[in-house]
Amino acid sequence: MRKPFVTLFFVILFCVNVFSQKTPHTFALVKTEFLLDNKPYQIISGEMHPARIPAQYWRHRIQMAKAMGCNTIAAYIFWNYHESEPGKFDFQTDNHNIAQFIHIVQEEGLFLILRPGPYVCAEWDFGGLPSYLLKIPDIKVRCMDPRYIEAMDRYIKELALQVRDLQITKGGPIVMVQVENEYGSYGNDKRYTSWIREMWKSNGIDVPFYTADGATPFMLEAGLLPDAAIGLDPGTSEADFAQATKSNPNVPSFCSELYPGWLTHWGEEWQRPDTATLLKNVKWLMDNKKSFNFYVIHGGTNFGYWAGANAFSPTQYQPDVTSYDYDAPINEMGQATPKYYALRNLLSKYRNNAEKLAPVPSQIAAIEIPEIRMKSSASVWDNLPKANYTPQPKPMEMFGQKGGFILYRTNLIGHKKGKLLITELHDYATVFVDGKFIGKLDRGKGENSIELPESNTANPQLDIFVEGMGRINFAEYMIDRKGITERVSLNGMTLMNWQVFNLPFDESYLNQLAYSEALPTLPGNFFKGEFELGTTGDTYLDLSQWEKGIVWVNGHNLGRYWNVGPQKQLYCPAPWLKKGKNELIIFDLHQLTARPVAGVKNME
What we know:
Elements: H1 2-20, E1 27-29, E2 34-36, E3 39-41, E4 44-47, H2 58-68, E5 72-76, H3 79-82, E6 83-85, E7 88-89, H4 98-107, E8 111-115, H5 146-163, E9 174-178, H6 190-202, E10 209-213, H7 217-223, E11 229-232, H8 238-247, E12 253-258, H9 275-287, E13 292-294, E14 309-310, E15 318-319, H10 338-348, E16 369-372, E17 374-379, E18 388-390, E19 404-411, E20 418-426, E21 428-433, E22 436-442, E23 449-452, E24 461-468, E25 483-490, E26 493-494, E27 498-503, H11 507-511, E28 525-533, E29 539-542, E30 548-553, E31 556-562, E32 569-572, E33 580-588, E34 597-600
Parallel strand pairs: 4-5, 4-13, 5-8, 8-9, 9-10, 10-11, 11-12, 12-13
Antiparallel strand pairs: 1-2, 2-3, 6-7, 14-15, 16-34, 17-28, 18-27, 19-24, 19-27, 20-23, 20-25, 21-22, 21-24, 25-26, 28-33, 29-32, 29-34, 30-31, 30-33
Helix pairs in contact: 9-10
């Protein structure tokens, strides 16, 4: 009686193993097109970034892309999100779990284009490069600087372990891997980009590679690699693709970034490009059977301190807003927009009757939250950590700090009033003398000096409280340390002997704050309140009555707000809320009085 049972057991086990194995496919490059299992294949890709989306929503966003008509997902991987300190990697927790994201893509029947950098741009802090590199005073990035190469080697080896078994050649969904990103807009070191590709190969990556550059001769010449497909950022015309073919006639080209929206900086109007032009470009790409990738189909959010910045001159600085809505077809809250339905309608026309699009997933519930009363406060001045001593100011990276705020303190000897000049302030400072607020300085406005009034004390105490905003993520000014990066002078006299207080405002710092119900007397305060929920849902916290600062809900950093706009509401996803009691903490650089906060269903 035992033998038939054992035989049946092994038959079942064999069947389970067979059906659980994923069938390997082939994906190849020929001169003019991509081949999937030796048949021509048009990539219709939608890009989204796992780090910008709560992991609980990954499947929903992927299903949304599929229902719009995409057959592929493109995903940037942010090096600095996964390696916070040298050798300290996180590919397991929450939305760090890249392998899980890729598995979901495959489960939903889509392929994946991997964009691992190591540099990615993406309006992300330092373009995805880890801030610990900036502790090296003379570091050079995106080249063969041995210090940079050593760190990059470590990252590639670690990421390859996570993704190499998920390639299409192993039965996974990854069809292509990008080498660097828009390198022709930055440098011309072919040895460097070739080294990256060879590192991926030596670590088990055997799918085709591609590069991505603007459709101009010098960018393509500096950025492309032999035998790698050519991505065009963007490519929307016969002339664009002809330029790519002229640069390398032996590989296919595709539109690696087609922009349905655009990024927004603080102080600007929301960027909302013309949908008619987008539809015209998509129609041309479909009619000409050109592969393309929507950048982005869903943007998500720059939670925490991860938003980047732009600068195209030594004096320019343009920090990005917290929202990465990007005016994308799927908005920040994961909802289908009119642009989404226009694209879905267009793409559906290129399918035969037997290939109907998947239904659009149900939208995640949004809720309103009544006004939250902020009942207590804590002053940063009463919660300073132990100081570091330095003869002259140093940026936060030199102290191992990745983001947040930093306080510089000294006493005035000699000159005690007059013109205070901060050389290379990065990025926003509030200035105090003997505990009295003097004013603010904003790098984005080119402000670097302020008049100090006369003080009654013998050696007045000068405090410069600095917020590091986004590190520059594009072009030649990427070496962008935070805090005071050079020197401070008063009437031309260099000020010496500084105490430096590192204030990353991370979880450990927040947990030790001492709150009271006393009214604040000096700018720079945390305000705390609690609210009850009977049901959870997505919401936007309305900060329109606050000035400038950071918000945490139940310990989750929602990002920056700033009354210069255009963003006045911060997205709070439902998984970060809970039924019953919730905690809200706001740090504001300027306000002394708490203002109302409420949850709303829409962003203005």
